[in-house]
Design brief:
By secondary structure, the protein is α/β, with parallel strands linked by helices. It has two domains: 2-129 and 377-392, Rossmann fold, CATH 3.40.50; 132-168 and 237-374, 3-Layer(aba) Sandwich (Rossmann fold). The protein has 17 helices and twelve strands. The longest helix is centred in the middle third of the chain and has 27 residues, at 226-252. The two termini are 20 Å apart.
């Protein structure tokens, strides 16, 4: 079997490519968008067409959805398989989503529920996973010096989203700004339920969309995506920035907090900021050696489990994450990981697990074993391939 992997440099691409190869699949890679982020859809289509005409491809694969790839595969009657790892993905509003040769896998049930009615026979739910074997190779080689150098009491690895927040640069009326501020404050108090999109007024949506000259626009859409984009790309990113800053500042008033980020951390005076870490070589050491690994899921990921959750557990780290409604589908809270649904509960559990090492280590081991046995890329991609095979027979 031969496939084409259309790459754009997502961090999980190497792991998926390796698993496909281990399955005995011949994987060709098209790396146009890894080197040219401004590549046009026409260039994309031309490259993919060349591969299809030159090789007997079973399917074309990508992380996240590329309309140009979908249209090209539809033209040549070759299945197009993609797996979303982000939210939001505005490209899912393209008319290409309706193509019959699509096999689209979405990791967030809310995302799946939103988009699957557009093409129910070709859109599927599939949670994310992790590469336990890769993390084992790093973790098992760690020295005492590594544990001392990378360890922390309370650790957070990730963006602060300040540099990605388009909302901050918008010129808005006092009414719109006040409305959004109030919405953010309300949402910050609720975990496991995202009500921003349904709460937006048409007036606020119009004002925000018109305030940004770069607001995502496309003539190739099956529905107006303004509400979705305002809720997720603008307010959602602002909410992430506010939530992360407040949470880290609050915890750092009471506990030693270490942050690995490439964002500006100047507004976190008591947080020990160390800059970014290399995903493949340093991140697993940080997760493994830290007492509490904190995860704060971006609110645009409404119900699903972000890649960070799987990776922390796959590295054998103890995970304390905000509650997501899909967590109980895969993990036992208090046995495999821990969750919080308020700032008070977060503080209480940080305090508890910093002083109860035996329980903390046992939970970390349970979480690792659950992921290693049930949630690896090998398992997920085998499920994906079965769905592709079964549905293409129809």
């Amino acid at each position: 079997m031969e496939i084409l992997f259309y790459r754009y440099n997502s961090i999980c691409e190497p792991d998926i490519l390796q698993v496909f190869t281990n399955f005995g699949i011949t994987v060709h890679t098209e790396e146009l968008e890894m080197h040219d982020k401004q590549a046009s859809p026409r260039e994309c289509a031309a490259r993919v067409s060349e591969w299809i005409l030159a090789h007997p491809l079973a399917f074309v694969f990508s992380i996240n959805f590329f309309p140009a790839v979908s249209y090209t595969c539809e033209k040549w009657k070759v299945p197009y398989v993609c797996w979303s790892v982000d939210s939001p993905v505005p490209e899912l509003f393209s008319n290409a989503l309706k193509n019959t040769y699509n096999r689209i896998f979405l990791f967030d049930k809310a995302q799946y529920d939103f988009f699957s009615p557009i093409n129910p026979d070709c859109i599927f739910y599939l949670p994310l996973a992790t590469n336990v074997k890769r993390w084992e190779n790093v973790v098992l080689s760690m020295s005492d010096e590594d544990y001392a150098a990378y360890g922390a009491d309370v650790l957070f690895v990730g963006s602060l989203y300040t540099e990605k927040c388009k909302y901050d640069s918008l010129v808005l009326s006092d009414h719109a700004r006040g409305f959004v501020d109030g919405l953010i404050e309300a949402q910050l108090k609720v975990f496991g339920c995202n009500f921003i999109s349904e709460s937006l007024t048409e007036e606020v949506i119009r004002e925000i969309s018109e305030a940004d000259p770069g607001f995502y626009k496309s003539e190739d859409t099956y529905a107006d995506m303004s509400r979705y984009l305002v809720a997720h790309q603008y307010i959602g990113m602002k909410l992430a920035a506010v939530e992360r800053e407040r949470t880290l500042n609050r915890l750092s008033q009471r506990f030693p907090v270490t942050l690995h980020t490439r964002s500006d951390a100047s507004r976190l005076p008591k947080v020990h900021s160390k800059g970014g870490v290399n995903t493949l070589t340093e991140m697993p050491k940080v997760f493994q050696s830290s007492k509490i690994n904190l995860n704060m899921t971006m609110r645009p990921i409404e119900t699903g489990l972000s890649l960070r959750i799987w990776d922390i557990l796959g590295c054998g780290g103890f995970l304390l994450t905000n509650y997501q409604t899909e967590i109980p589908d895969y993990f036992e809270i208090g046995r495999d990981l821990e969750t919080y649904e308020s700032m008070e509960e977060l503080e209480e559990k940080v305090r508890y697990y910093l002083s109860h090492e035996e329980e903390r280590v046992e939970i970390a081991i349970n979480g690792y074993e659950k992921v290693a046995n049930c949630h690896t890329y090998e398992i997920r991609l085998a499920q994906m391939l079965k769905i592709i095979t079964d549905t293409m027979k129809r």
